[in-house]
Design the sequence.
Protein backbone atom coordinates (compact mmCIF):
# COMPACT_ATOMS: atom_id res chain seq x y z
CA UNK A 1 0.00 0.00 0.00
CA UNK A 2 1.51 3.34 -1.08
CA UNK A 3 1.89 6.17 1.48
CA UNK A 4 -0.64 8.30 -0.40
CA UNK A 5 -3.22 5.51 -0.44
CA UNK A 6 -2.72 4.99 3.29
CA UNK A 7 -3.35 8.72 3.77
CA UNK A 8 -6.58 8.51 1.76
CA UNK A 9 -7.85 5.58 3.81
CA UNK A 10 -6.73 7.13 7.10
CA UNK A 11 -8.37 10.52 6.53
CA UNK A 12 -11.56 8.89 5.23
CA UNK A 13 -11.92 6.76 8.34
CA UNK A 14 -11.16 9.79 10.49
CA UNK A 15 -13.99 11.62 8.68
CA UNK A 16 -16.36 8.75 9.48
CA UNK A 17 -15.37 8.88 13.15
CA UNK A 18 -15.83 12.64 13.60
CA UNK A 19 -19.24 12.57 11.88
CA UNK A 20 -20.52 9.44 13.61
CA UNK A 21 -23.38 8.31 13.68
CA UNK A 22 -24.01 9.79 10.22
CA UNK A 23 -22.40 6.78 8.53
CA UNK A 24 -25.20 4.56 9.86
CA UNK A 25 -27.78 6.32 7.68
CA UNK A 26 -25.89 8.00 4.86
CA UNK A 27 -28.83 7.90 2.45
CA UNK A 28 -31.57 8.71 4.96
CA UNK A 29 -30.57 11.44 7.41
CA UNK A 30 -28.65 14.70 7.63
CA UNK A 31 -26.63 16.07 10.52
CA UNK A 32 -29.07 18.92 11.24
CA UNK A 33 -32.12 20.59 9.61
CA UNK A 34 -30.52 23.85 8.41
CA UNK A 35 -27.42 24.12 6.18
CA UNK A 36 -27.31 20.39 5.31
CA UNK A 37 -30.83 20.73 3.90
CA UNK A 38 -29.88 23.88 1.96
CA UNK A 39 -26.73 22.27 0.55
CA UNK A 40 -28.61 19.08 -0.35
CA UNK A 41 -31.05 21.18 -2.35
CA UNK A 42 -28.17 23.12 -4.01
CA UNK A 43 -26.47 19.92 -5.18
CA UNK A 44 -29.76 18.39 -6.30
CA UNK A 45 -30.71 21.49 -8.32
CA UNK A 46 -27.30 21.66 -9.99
CA UNK A 47 -27.46 17.99 -10.95
CA UNK A 48 -30.99 18.42 -12.33
CA UNK A 49 -30.03 21.53 -14.30
CA UNK A 50 -26.79 20.07 -15.67
CA UNK A 51 -28.58 16.97 -16.91
CA UNK A 52 -31.78 18.62 -18.17
CA UNK A 53 -31.49 22.40 -18.57
CA UNK A 54 -27.83 23.50 -18.48
CA UNK A 55 -28.76 27.01 -19.59
CA UNK A 56 -30.92 27.41 -16.46
CA UNK A 57 -28.18 26.38 -14.02
CA UNK A 58 -28.17 29.64 -12.08
CA UNK A 59 -31.94 30.15 -12.28
CA UNK A 60 -32.87 27.91 -9.38
CA UNK A 61 -36.49 27.27 -8.43
CA UNK A 62 -36.64 29.63 -5.44
CA UNK A 63 -37.67 33.30 -5.16
CA UNK A 64 -39.65 33.13 -8.41
CA UNK A 65 -39.65 35.12 -10.69
CA UNK A 66 -36.17 36.45 -9.83
CA UNK A 67 -33.27 35.16 -11.91
CA UNK A 68 -29.86 33.80 -10.85
CA UNK A 69 -31.21 32.78 -7.44
CA UNK A 70 -28.66 29.97 -7.11
CA UNK A 71 -26.10 32.75 -6.63
CA UNK A 72 -27.78 33.97 -3.45
CA UNK A 73 -25.55 31.48 -1.60
CA UNK A 74 -22.54 29.21 -2.19
CA UNK A 75 -22.86 27.21 -5.39
CA UNK A 76 -20.40 24.36 -4.67
CA UNK A 77 -19.99 23.99 -8.43
CA UNK A 78 -16.83 21.89 -8.54
CA UNK A 79 -17.88 19.41 -5.81
CA UNK A 80 -21.23 19.16 -7.58
CA UNK A 81 -19.49 18.15 -10.81
CA UNK A 82 -17.33 15.61 -8.97
CA UNK A 83 -20.44 14.05 -7.42
CA UNK A 84 -22.51 14.07 -10.61
CA UNK A 85 -21.63 10.46 -11.58
CA UNK A 86 -22.95 9.29 -8.20
CA UNK A 87 -26.23 11.07 -8.86
CA UNK A 88 -26.43 9.51 -12.35
CA UNK A 89 -25.91 6.12 -10.71
CA UNK A 90 -29.09 6.69 -8.69
CA UNK A 91 -27.97 8.18 -5.37
CA UNK A 92 -30.48 10.40 -3.61
CA UNK A 93 -29.88 13.98 -2.47
CA UNK A 94 -29.22 13.02 1.16
CA UNK A 95 -26.53 10.48 0.27
CA UNK A 96 -24.84 12.91 -2.10
CA UNK A 97 -24.72 15.61 0.59
CA UNK A 98 -23.28 13.24 3.20
CA UNK A 99 -20.60 12.14 0.76
CA UNK A 100 -19.84 15.85 0.27
CA UNK A 101 -19.19 16.13 4.02
CA UNK A 102 -16.92 13.06 4.13
CA UNK A 103 -15.05 14.20 1.02
CA UNK A 104 -14.50 17.64 2.55
CA UNK A 105 -12.55 16.20 5.47
CA UNK A 106 -10.80 13.56 3.35
CA UNK A 107 -9.67 15.71 0.43
CA UNK A 108 -8.56 18.57 2.68
CA UNK A 109 -6.51 16.11 4.71
CA UNK A 110 -4.92 14.60 1.60
CA UNK A 111 -3.94 17.95 0.10
CA UNK A 112 -2.46 19.01 3.44
CA UNK A 113 -0.56 15.72 3.52
CA UNK A 114 0.90 16.41 0.06
CA UNK A 115 1.96 19.92 1.09
CA UNK A 116 3.62 18.70 4.30
CA UNK A 117 5.42 15.84 2.56
CA UNK A 118 6.75 18.22 -0.13
CA UNK A 119 7.85 20.87 2.35
CA UNK A 120 9.72 18.52 4.68
CA UNK A 121 10.29 15.38 2.58
CA UNK A 122 8.69 13.43 5.39
CA UNK A 123 5.45 11.38 5.44
CA UNK A 124 4.92 12.01 9.17
CA UNK A 125 5.05 15.74 8.57
CA UNK A 126 2.47 15.25 5.84
CA UNK A 127 0.18 13.25 8.16
CA UNK A 128 0.34 15.97 10.80
CA UNK A 129 -0.14 18.91 8.47
CA UNK A 130 -3.07 17.29 6.70
CA UNK A 131 -4.65 16.01 9.90
CA UNK A 132 -4.46 19.33 11.76
CA UNK A 133 -5.65 21.31 8.75
CA UNK A 134 -8.64 19.04 8.14
CA UNK A 135 -9.61 18.14 11.72
CA UNK A 136 -9.44 21.05 14.14
CA UNK A 137 -11.78 22.98 16.41
CA UNK A 138 -12.94 25.21 13.57
CA UNK A 139 -13.83 22.46 11.10
CA UNK A 140 -15.26 20.18 13.78
CA UNK A 141 -17.52 23.05 14.88
CA UNK A 142 -18.87 23.34 11.33
CA UNK A 143 -19.77 19.79 10.34
CA UNK A 144 -23.26 20.99 9.48
CA UNK A 145 -21.86 23.47 6.93
CA UNK A 146 -20.25 21.27 4.31
CA UNK A 147 -19.02 24.23 2.26
CA UNK A 148 -16.69 25.17 5.13
CA UNK A 149 -15.01 21.74 5.08
CA UNK A 150 -13.76 21.99 1.50
CA UNK A 151 -10.30 23.54 1.61
CA UNK A 152 -8.67 20.86 -0.51
CA UNK A 153 -7.24 23.09 -3.23
CA UNK A 154 -5.60 25.71 -1.02
CA UNK A 155 -2.64 23.54 0.19
CA UNK A 156 -2.02 22.45 -3.40
CA UNK A 157 -1.97 26.09 -4.52
CA UNK A 158 0.60 26.81 -1.79
CA UNK A 159 2.61 23.75 -2.83
CA UNK A 160 2.94 25.01 -6.39
CA UNK A 161 3.53 28.54 -5.15
CA UNK A 162 6.56 27.14 -3.32
CA UNK A 163 7.72 25.25 -6.40
CA UNK A 164 7.25 28.34 -8.57
CA UNK A 165 9.29 30.55 -6.25
CA UNK A 166 12.09 27.99 -5.91
CA UNK A 167 12.36 27.06 -9.59
CA UNK A 168 10.13 29.32 -11.70
CA UNK A 169 8.53 27.25 -14.47
CA UNK A 170 5.44 27.71 -16.60
CA UNK A 171 4.11 24.34 -15.38
CA UNK A 172 4.20 25.42 -11.73
CA UNK A 173 2.53 28.72 -12.62
CA UNK A 174 -0.23 26.94 -14.55
CA UNK A 175 -0.90 24.49 -11.73
CA UNK A 176 -0.93 27.30 -9.15
CA UNK A 177 -3.57 29.08 -11.25
CA UNK A 178 -5.56 25.86 -11.68
CA UNK A 179 -5.69 25.05 -7.96
CA UNK A 180 -6.49 28.65 -7.00
CA UNK A 181 -9.34 28.62 -9.53
CA UNK A 182 -10.55 25.24 -8.27
CA UNK A 183 -10.79 26.61 -4.72
CA UNK A 184 -12.89 29.55 -5.96
CA UNK A 185 -15.30 27.26 -7.82
CA UNK A 186 -15.51 25.00 -4.77
CA UNK A 187 -16.19 27.61 -2.08
CA UNK A 188 -16.36 31.30 -2.93
CA UNK A 189 -15.34 32.28 0.60
CA UNK A 190 -12.14 30.27 0.56
CA UNK A 191 -11.49 31.22 -3.06
CA UNK A 192 -11.37 34.90 -2.10
CA UNK A 193 -9.24 34.03 0.94
CA UNK A 194 -6.97 32.04 -1.36
CA UNK A 195 -6.24 34.99 -3.65
CA UNK A 196 -5.36 37.13 -0.65
CA UNK A 197 -3.17 34.38 0.84
CA UNK A 198 -1.28 33.65 -2.39
CA UNK A 199 -0.75 37.33 -3.20
CA UNK A 200 0.53 38.24 0.29
CA UNK A 201 2.58 35.11 1.00
CA UNK A 202 3.88 34.90 -2.55
CA UNK A 203 4.88 38.58 -2.62
CA UNK A 204 6.63 38.54 0.75
CA UNK A 205 8.43 35.23 0.13
CA UNK A 206 9.59 36.44 -3.28
CA UNK A 207 10.89 39.64 -1.71
CA UNK A 208 13.09 37.78 0.79
CA UNK A 209 13.97 34.81 -1.42
CA UNK A 210 17.65 34.31 -2.29
CA UNK A 211 18.14 33.85 -6.02
CA UNK A 212 21.45 33.06 -7.68
CA UNK A 213 20.72 35.40 -10.60
CA UNK A 214 18.63 38.54 -10.98
CA UNK A 215 16.90 37.22 -14.09
CA UNK A 216 15.61 34.22 -12.13
CA UNK A 217 14.15 36.54 -9.49
CA UNK A 218 12.25 38.55 -12.09
CA UNK A 219 11.13 35.43 -13.94
CA UNK A 220 9.62 34.16 -10.68
CA UNK A 221 7.76 37.44 -10.13
CA UNK A 222 6.44 37.55 -13.69
CA UNK A 223 5.22 33.95 -13.53
CA UNK A 224 3.62 34.55 -10.12
CA UNK A 225 1.77 37.58 -11.49
CA UNK A 226 0.74 35.59 -14.58
CA UNK A 227 -0.54 32.72 -12.41
CA UNK A 228 -2.69 35.06 -10.30
CA UNK A 229 -3.88 36.87 -13.42
CA UNK A 230 -4.79 33.62 -15.15
CA UNK A 231 -6.67 32.43 -12.07
CA UNK A 232 -8.58 35.73 -11.94
CA UNK A 233 -9.45 35.35 -15.61
CA UNK A 234 -10.68 31.78 -15.09
CA UNK A 235 -12.78 32.87 -12.10
CA UNK A 236 -14.26 35.78 -14.04
CA UNK A 237 -17.35 33.97 -15.43
CA UNK A 238 -18.64 33.07 -11.98
CA UNK A 239 -17.28 36.20 -10.34
CA UNK A 240 -19.06 38.47 -12.84
CA UNK A 241 -22.31 36.57 -12.26
CA UNK A 242 -22.05 37.14 -8.53
CA UNK A 243 -21.19 40.80 -9.07
CA UNK A 244 -24.17 41.38 -11.35
CA UNK A 245 -26.54 39.74 -8.91
CA UNK A 246 -25.14 41.73 -5.99
CA UNK A 247 -25.43 45.00 -7.89
CA UNK A 248 -28.94 44.31 -9.16
CA UNK A 249 -30.24 43.32 -5.74
CA UNK A 250 -27.98 45.45 -3.53
CA UNK A 251 -26.45 42.38 -1.91
CA UNK A 252 -23.50 43.30 0.28
CA UNK A 253 -22.40 42.89 3.88
CA UNK A 254 -21.75 45.98 5.95
CA UNK A 255 -19.25 46.05 8.80
CA UNK A 256 -22.21 46.02 11.17
CA UNK A 257 -23.18 42.65 9.68
CA UNK A 258 -19.61 41.33 9.74
CA UNK A 259 -18.52 42.00 13.31
CA UNK A 260 -21.04 39.61 14.98
CA UNK A 261 -19.54 36.81 12.87
CA UNK A 262 -15.97 37.70 13.83
CA UNK A 263 -13.71 35.96 16.32
CA UNK A 264 -12.95 37.20 19.80
CA UNK A 265 -10.35 36.15 22.35
CA UNK A 266 -13.17 34.25 24.01
CA UNK A 267 -13.64 32.24 20.81
CA UNK A 268 -9.96 31.38 20.56
CA UNK A 269 -9.91 30.24 24.20
CA UNK A 270 -13.14 28.23 23.93
CA UNK A 271 -13.00 24.50 23.24
CA UNK A 272 -15.97 22.66 21.70
CA UNK A 273 -18.07 21.39 24.64
CA UNK A 274 -17.96 17.84 23.26
CA UNK A 275 -14.14 17.76 23.19
CA UNK A 276 -13.10 14.89 25.49
CA UNK A 277 -9.76 16.38 26.49
CA UNK A 278 -10.48 20.05 27.08
CA UNK A 279 -14.25 20.44 26.86
CA UNK A 280 -14.68 20.00 30.62
CA UNK A 281 -12.48 23.02 31.34
CA UNK A 282 -12.29 25.28 28.27
CA UNK A 283 -15.85 24.95 26.95
CA UNK A 284 -17.86 28.17 27.08
CA UNK A 285 -21.50 28.97 26.59
CA UNK A 286 -21.00 30.92 23.37
CA UNK A 287 -23.87 32.90 21.79
CA UNK A 288 -25.97 31.49 18.96
CA UNK A 289 -26.14 33.44 15.69
CA UNK A 290 -28.54 32.28 13.02
CA UNK A 291 -28.93 28.56 13.47
CA UNK A 292 -25.48 27.82 14.91
CA UNK A 293 -23.41 28.60 17.96
CA UNK A 294 -20.44 30.91 17.43
CA UNK A 295 -17.32 28.89 16.57
CA UNK A 296 -15.13 27.51 19.33
CA UNK A 297 -11.55 27.91 18.05
CA UNK A 298 -9.31 26.63 20.89
CA UNK A 299 -6.49 24.70 19.16
CA UNK A 300 -5.56 22.59 22.20
CA UNK A 301 -2.62 22.87 24.57
CA UNK A 302 -0.58 20.06 23.00
CA UNK A 303 -1.05 21.47 19.50
CA UNK A 304 -0.15 24.99 20.65
CA UNK A 305 2.98 23.81 22.49
CA UNK A 306 4.04 21.68 19.51
CA UNK A 307 3.64 24.67 17.17
CA UNK A 308 5.67 26.93 19.48
CA UNK A 309 8.38 24.27 19.75
CA UNK A 310 8.43 23.86 15.97
CA UNK A 311 8.83 27.61 15.53
CA UNK A 312 11.64 27.77 18.09
CA UNK A 313 13.52 24.87 16.47
CA UNK A 314 13.05 26.33 13.02
CA UNK A 315 14.34 29.73 14.10
CA UNK A 316 17.27 28.21 16.02
CA UNK A 317 18.25 26.10 13.01
CA UNK A 318 18.01 29.09 10.68
CA UNK A 319 20.13 31.34 12.92
CA UNK A 320 22.91 28.76 13.09
CA UNK A 321 22.73 27.92 9.39
CA UNK A 322 26.09 28.78 7.82
CA UNK A 323 25.15 27.66 4.33
CA UNK A 324 24.75 29.70 1.21
CA UNK A 325 21.20 30.80 2.09
CA UNK A 326 22.15 33.56 4.45
CA UNK A 327 18.56 34.78 4.65
CA UNK A 328 17.21 31.44 5.92
CA UNK A 329 16.53 32.92 9.38
CA UNK A 330 13.76 35.02 7.85
CA UNK A 331 11.45 32.09 7.03
CA UNK A 332 10.19 31.22 10.52
CA UNK A 333 9.72 34.90 11.25
CA UNK A 334 7.75 35.32 8.03
CA UNK A 335 5.55 32.36 8.96
CA UNK A 336 5.00 33.81 12.43
CA UNK A 337 4.06 37.18 10.93
CA UNK A 338 1.64 35.48 8.53
CA UNK A 339 0.05 33.61 11.44
CA UNK A 340 -0.38 36.81 13.41
CA UNK A 341 -1.74 38.70 10.41
CA UNK A 342 -4.47 36.15 9.65
CA UNK A 343 -5.16 35.76 13.36
CA UNK A 344 -5.86 39.50 13.49
CA UNK A 345 -8.06 39.28 10.36
CA UNK A 346 -10.20 36.64 12.08
CA UNK A 347 -11.24 39.33 14.59
CA UNK A 348 -13.01 41.21 11.81
CA UNK A 349 -13.38 45.00 11.75
CA UNK A 350 -13.31 45.66 15.52
CA UNK A 351 -11.43 44.21 18.45
CA UNK A 352 -13.47 41.88 20.67
CA UNK A 353 -12.29 40.50 23.96
CA UNK A 354 -15.60 38.72 24.55
CA UNK A 355 -18.05 37.55 21.90
CA UNK A 356 -20.50 40.16 20.60
CA UNK A 357 -18.86 42.92 22.64
CA UNK A 358 -16.83 44.90 20.10
CA UNK A 359 -14.74 47.94 20.83
CA UNK A 360 -15.83 50.19 17.96
CA UNK A 361 -13.00 52.59 18.76
CA UNK A 362 -10.38 49.99 17.75
CA UNK A 363 -10.70 49.55 14.00
CA UNK A 364 -8.72 46.54 12.74
CA UNK A 365 -7.16 45.83 9.29
CA UNK A 366 -10.16 43.77 8.17
CA UNK A 367 -12.21 46.98 7.94
CA UNK A 368 -9.79 48.34 5.32
CA UNK A 369 -9.72 45.02 3.40
CA UNK A 370 -13.53 44.89 3.47
CA UNK A 371 -13.65 48.34 1.91
CA UNK A 372 -10.91 48.08 -0.70
CA UNK A 373 -10.34 44.44 -1.70
CA UNK A 374 -12.86 43.15 -4.29
CA UNK A 375 -15.16 40.41 -3.04
CA UNK A 376 -14.88 41.08 0.68
CA UNK A 377 -17.98 43.29 0.78
CA UNK A 378 -20.04 40.15 0.07
CA UNK A 379 -18.49 38.16 2.97
CA UNK A 380 -20.08 38.08 6.39
CA UNK A 381 -17.86 35.87 8.57
CA UNK A 382 -14.24 37.01 9.17
CA UNK A 383 -13.97 34.21 11.75
CA UNK A 384 -13.38 31.88 8.81
CA UNK A 385 -9.82 33.22 8.57
CA UNK A 386 -9.25 30.66 11.34
CA UNK A 387 -8.59 28.23 8.48
CA UNK A 388 -5.40 30.06 7.48
CA UNK A 389 -4.30 30.28 11.12
CA UNK A 390 -4.66 26.51 11.47
CA UNK A 391 -2.74 26.01 8.23
CA UNK A 392 0.17 27.94 9.75
CA UNK A 393 -0.02 26.03 13.05
CA UNK A 394 -0.11 22.75 11.14
CA UNK A 395 3.01 23.74 9.20
CA UNK A 396 4.93 24.46 12.41
CA UNK A 397 3.92 21.11 13.94
CA UNK A 398 4.89 19.37 10.68
CA UNK A 399 8.34 20.97 10.97
CA UNK A 400 8.65 19.68 14.55
CA UNK A 401 7.94 16.16 13.26
CA UNK A 402 10.59 16.67 10.58
CA UNK A 403 13.18 17.52 13.23
CA UNK A 404 12.38 14.43 15.29
CA UNK A 405 14.80 11.64 14.50
CA UNK A 406 12.94 8.64 15.87
CA UNK A 407 9.81 7.23 14.37
CA UNK A 408 8.32 6.48 17.77
CA UNK A 409 8.50 10.16 18.70
CA UNK A 410 6.72 11.20 15.52
CA UNK A 411 4.05 8.61 16.09
CA UNK A 412 3.59 9.76 19.67
CA UNK A 413 3.21 13.38 18.54
CA UNK A 414 0.61 12.38 15.97
CA UNK A 415 -1.35 10.28 18.48
CA UNK A 416 -1.28 12.96 21.20
CA UNK A 417 -2.63 15.63 18.84
CA UNK A 418 -5.26 13.21 17.48
CA UNK A 419 -6.42 12.28 20.99
CA UNK A 420 -6.55 15.96 21.96
CA UNK A 421 -8.94 16.62 19.04
CA UNK A 422 -11.30 13.69 19.75
CA UNK A 423 -14.86 14.75 20.42
CA UNK A 424 -18.12 12.93 20.99
CA UNK A 425 -20.30 14.16 18.15
CA UNK A 426 -23.37 15.91 19.60
CA UNK A 427 -25.17 15.45 16.31
CA UNK A 428 -28.84 14.82 16.01
CA UNK A 429 -29.92 13.24 12.75
CA UNK A 430 -32.61 14.94 10.71
CA UNK A 431 -34.66 12.94 8.21
CA UNK A 432 -36.29 15.11 5.53
CA UNK A 433 -39.44 13.18 4.67
CA UNK A 434 -42.84 13.96 3.14
CA UNK A 435 -46.14 12.37 4.10
CA UNK A 436 -47.63 9.83 1.68
CA UNK A 437 -50.32 12.38 0.76
CA UNK A 438 -47.73 15.03 -0.08
CA UNK A 439 -45.72 12.48 -2.07
CA UNK A 440 -48.78 11.76 -4.23
CA UNK A 441 -49.28 15.48 -4.87
CA UNK A 442 -45.60 15.86 -5.72
CA UNK A 443 -45.79 12.98 -8.21
CA UNK A 444 -48.75 14.68 -9.91
CA UNK A 445 -46.85 17.97 -10.07
CA UNK A 446 -43.79 16.20 -11.48
CA UNK A 447 -45.89 15.06 -14.44
CA UNK A 448 -46.89 18.65 -15.32
CA UNK A 449 -44.79 21.03 -17.45
CA UNK A 450 -42.41 22.92 -15.17
CA UNK A 451 -44.04 26.08 -13.85
CA UNK A 452 -44.56 27.89 -10.55
CA UNK A 453 -46.61 27.17 -7.44
CA UNK A 454 -47.48 28.65 -4.08
CA UNK A 455 -47.49 26.47 -0.98
CA UNK A 456 -49.83 27.12 1.93
CA UNK A 457 -49.61 27.77 4.79
CA UNK A 458 -47.10 30.58 4.41
CA UNK A 459 -44.75 30.33 7.36
CA UNK A 460 -43.55 33.37 9.22
CA UNK A 461 -40.02 34.73 9.53
CA UNK A 462 -40.67 36.03 13.00
CA UNK A 463 -37.79 34.40 14.86
CA UNK A 464 -35.04 31.80 15.06
CA UNK A 465 -36.09 28.41 13.77
CA UNK A 466 -38.66 29.69 11.26
CA UNK A 467 -36.22 28.98 8.44
CA UNK A 468 -36.62 25.25 9.10
CA UNK A 469 -40.14 25.24 7.64
CA UNK A 470 -39.01 26.98 4.45
CA UNK A 471 -35.97 24.78 4.08
CA UNK A 472 -38.00 21.60 4.37
CA UNK A 473 -40.47 22.86 1.76
CA UNK A 474 -37.56 23.92 -0.48
CA UNK A 475 -35.94 20.51 -0.12
CA UNK A 476 -39.20 18.73 -1.02
CA UNK A 477 -39.36 20.70 -4.29
CA UNK A 478 -36.62 18.43 -5.68
CA UNK A 479 -39.41 15.91 -6.31
CA UNK A 480 -41.00 18.09 -9.02
CA UNK A 481 -38.76 21.19 -9.53
CA UNK A 482 -41.58 23.70 -9.95
CA UNK A 483 -40.62 27.21 -8.87
CA UNK A 484 -41.80 28.97 -5.72
CA UNK A 485 -41.87 32.68 -4.81
CA UNK A 486 -40.35 31.71 -1.46
CA UNK A 487 -37.17 30.03 -0.35
CA UNK A 488 -34.21 30.25 2.00
CA UNK A 489 -30.63 31.23 1.12
CA UNK A 490 -27.74 33.45 2.14
CA UNK A 491 -29.50 36.50 0.74
CA UNK A 492 -33.15 37.34 0.11
CA UNK A 493 -34.37 39.35 -2.90
CA UNK A 494 -35.43 42.98 -2.44
CA UNK A 495 -38.81 43.50 -0.75
CA UNK A 496 -39.17 39.75 -0.28
CA UNK A 497 -40.74 40.10 3.13
CA UNK A 498 -43.31 42.58 1.80
CA UNK A 499 -44.26 39.97 -0.78
CA UNK A 500 -44.42 37.40 2.00
CA UNK A 501 -46.87 39.53 3.98
CA UNK A 502 -48.94 40.28 0.89
CA UNK A 503 -49.38 36.63 -0.11
CA UNK A 504 -50.55 35.66 3.36
CA UNK A 505 -53.81 37.41 2.41
CA UNK A 506 -54.70 34.63 -0.05
CA UNK A 507 -57.48 34.08 -1.29
CA UNK A 508 -58.26 37.80 -1.58
CA UNK A 509 -58.90 38.81 -5.20
CA UNK A 510 -55.88 41.09 -5.51
CA UNK A 511 -53.61 38.29 -4.29
CA UNK A 512 -55.09 35.84 -6.78
CA UNK A 513 -54.66 38.44 -9.54
CA UNK A 514 -51.03 38.88 -8.51
CA UNK A 515 -50.41 35.12 -8.69
CA UNK A 516 -52.02 34.92 -12.14
CA UNK A 517 -50.03 37.90 -13.40
CA UNK A 518 -46.85 36.35 -12.05
CA UNK A 519 -47.44 33.07 -13.86
CA UNK A 520 -48.04 31.00 -10.72
CA UNK A 521 -50.29 28.13 -11.79
CA UNK A 522 -50.88 26.02 -8.70
CA UNK A 523 -51.58 26.48 -5.02
CA UNK A 524 -50.66 23.50 -2.85
CA UNK A 525 -52.41 23.49 0.52
CA UNK A 526 -52.11 21.46 3.72
CA UNK A 527 -55.18 22.40 5.82
CA UNK A 528 -53.92 20.54 8.87
CA UNK A 529 -51.09 23.07 9.17
CA UNK A 530 -53.27 26.15 8.64
CA UNK A 531 -54.87 28.37 11.22
CA UNK A 532 -58.53 27.88 12.11
CA UNK A 533 -59.87 30.53 9.71
CA UNK A 534 -57.54 30.06 6.69
CA UNK A 535 -58.91 26.85 5.22
CA UNK A 536 -62.63 27.80 5.57
CA UNK A 537 -61.88 31.10 3.77
CA UNK A 538 -60.24 29.21 0.88
CA UNK A 539 -63.17 26.75 0.65
CA UNK A 540 -65.64 29.62 0.56
CA UNK A 541 -63.64 31.44 -2.15
CA UNK A 542 -63.41 28.23 -4.20
CA UNK A 543 -67.15 27.77 -4.04
CA UNK A 544 -67.85 31.41 -4.89
CA UNK A 545 -65.45 31.56 -7.84
CA UNK A 546 -66.02 28.06 -9.18
CA UNK A 547 -62.49 26.80 -8.54
CA UNK A 548 -61.89 23.11 -9.03
CA UNK A 549 -59.96 21.54 -6.16
CA UNK A 550 -58.33 18.15 -6.16
CA UNK A 551 -56.78 16.42 -3.21
CA UNK A 552 -54.72 13.49 -2.05
CA UNK A 553 -55.77 12.80 1.49
CA UNK A 554 -54.82 15.88 3.54
CA UNK A 555 -53.09 17.68 0.66
CA UNK A 556 -55.23 19.87 -1.60
CA UNK A 557 -54.30 21.48 -4.88
CA UNK A 558 -55.87 24.39 -6.73
CA UNK A 559 -55.01 25.07 -10.36
CA UNK A 560 -55.60 28.79 -10.89
CA UNK A 561 -57.66 29.80 -13.94
CA UNK A 562 -55.50 31.09 -16.76
CA UNK A 563 -56.50 34.75 -17.15
CA UNK A 564 -54.70 36.70 -19.89
CA UNK A 565 -53.12 39.82 -18.45
CA UNK A 566 -53.14 42.99 -20.49
CA UNK A 567 -50.21 45.35 -20.68
CA UNK A 568 -51.10 48.12 -18.22
CA UNK A 569 -51.62 51.65 -19.43
CA UNK A 570 -49.98 54.17 -17.15
CA UNK A 571 -50.95 57.80 -16.68
CA UNK A 572 -48.79 60.17 -14.67
CA UNK A 573 -50.48 63.26 -13.26
CA UNK A 574 -48.21 66.20 -12.56
CA UNK A 575 -49.07 69.71 -11.41
CA UNK A 576 -49.13 72.38 -14.10
CA UNK A 577 -46.79 74.53 -12.04
CA UNK A 578 -43.99 71.97 -12.13
CA UNK A 579 -40.73 73.42 -13.37
CA UNK A 580 -37.88 71.67 -15.07
CA UNK A 581 -35.37 70.54 -12.46
CA UNK A 582 -37.93 70.85 -9.68
CA UNK A 583 -39.16 68.12 -7.34
CA UNK A 584 -42.73 66.90 -7.73
CA UNK A 585 -44.79 63.95 -6.53
CA UNK A 586 -46.06 61.78 -9.37
CA UNK A 587 -49.08 59.53 -8.85
CA UNK A 588 -49.39 56.42 -11.04
CA UNK A 589 -52.76 55.11 -12.20
CA UNK A 590 -52.92 51.60 -13.66
CA UNK A 591 -55.77 51.02 -16.12
CA UNK A 592 -56.69 47.49 -17.23
CA UNK A 593 -59.44 44.91 -16.95
CA UNK A 594 -57.70 43.11 -14.09
CA UNK A 595 -55.55 44.33 -11.19
CA UNK A 596 -51.99 44.08 -12.54
CA UNK A 597 -48.95 44.02 -10.26
CA UNK A 598 -45.48 45.07 -11.28
CA UNK A 599 -43.53 41.82 -11.05
CA UNK A 600 -39.74 41.70 -10.70
CA UNK A 601 -37.80 40.36 -13.69
CA UNK A 602 -40.89 39.99 -15.89
CA UNK A 603 -42.27 41.99 -18.80
CA UNK A 604 -44.20 43.96 -16.19
CA UNK A 605 -41.10 44.61 -14.12
CA UNK A 606 -40.45 48.18 -15.22
CA UNK A 607 -42.48 51.18 -16.21
CA UNK A 608 -41.18 53.96 -18.42
CA UNK A 609 -42.62 57.43 -17.92
CA UNK A 610 -42.26 60.45 -20.18
CA UNK A 611 -43.33 63.95 -19.19
CA UNK A 612 -44.18 66.32 -22.02
CA UNK A 613 -45.00 70.01 -21.86
CA UNK A 614 -46.57 70.84 -25.19
CA UNK A 615 -44.24 69.38 -27.79
CA UNK A 616 -41.21 69.40 -25.51
CA UNK A 617 -40.21 66.28 -23.50
CA UNK A 618 -38.78 67.40 -20.18
CA UNK A 619 -38.49 64.11 -18.25
CA UNK A 620 -37.91 60.43 -18.97
CA UNK A 621 -37.82 58.00 -16.05
CA UNK A 622 -38.01 54.27 -15.46
CA UNK A 623 -39.09 52.41 -12.35
CA UNK A 624 -36.61 50.07 -10.69
Sequence:
Amino acid sequence: MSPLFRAVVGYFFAAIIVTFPLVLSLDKSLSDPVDPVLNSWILAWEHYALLNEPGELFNANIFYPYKNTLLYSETLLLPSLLLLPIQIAGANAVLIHNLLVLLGFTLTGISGYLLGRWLFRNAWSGWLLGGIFAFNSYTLSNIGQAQLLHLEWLPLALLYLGKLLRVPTVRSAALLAAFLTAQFYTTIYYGIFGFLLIALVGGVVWLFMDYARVEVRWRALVLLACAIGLALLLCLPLGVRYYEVSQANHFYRTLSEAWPFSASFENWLAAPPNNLTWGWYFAKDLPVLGAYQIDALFPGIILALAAITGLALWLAHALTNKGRRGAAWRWPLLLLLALLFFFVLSFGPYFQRESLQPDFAQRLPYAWIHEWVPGFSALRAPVRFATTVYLGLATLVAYLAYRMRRRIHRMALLMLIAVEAVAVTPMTTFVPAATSDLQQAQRWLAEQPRGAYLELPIYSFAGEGDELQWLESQFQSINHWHASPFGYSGFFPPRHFELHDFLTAFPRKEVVAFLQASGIEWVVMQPAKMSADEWPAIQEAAKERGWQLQHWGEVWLLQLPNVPVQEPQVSYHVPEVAQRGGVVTIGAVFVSDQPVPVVADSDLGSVKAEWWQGERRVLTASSV
Remarks:
- The chain has 23 helices and twelve strands.
- Residues 570-577, 584-606 have pLDDT under 50 and may be disordered.
- The first helix runs from residue 3 to 18.
